[in-house]
Amino acid sequence: MMAVRVEHLVTSGTFSLDGGTWEVDNNVWIVGDDDEAVVIDAAHDAGAIAAALGGRRLRAIVSTHGHDDHVDAAPELAARTGAPVLLHPADLPLWRMRHPDTAPDGDLADGQVVPVAGTGLTVLHTPGHSPGAVCLHAPDLGTVFSGDTLFAGGPGATGRSFSDFPTIIESIRGRLLTLPPETVVRTGHGETTTIGAEAPHLDAWIARGH
Question: Which of 161, 153, 106 is nearest to 134 (CA)?
Answer without folding.
Answer: 106
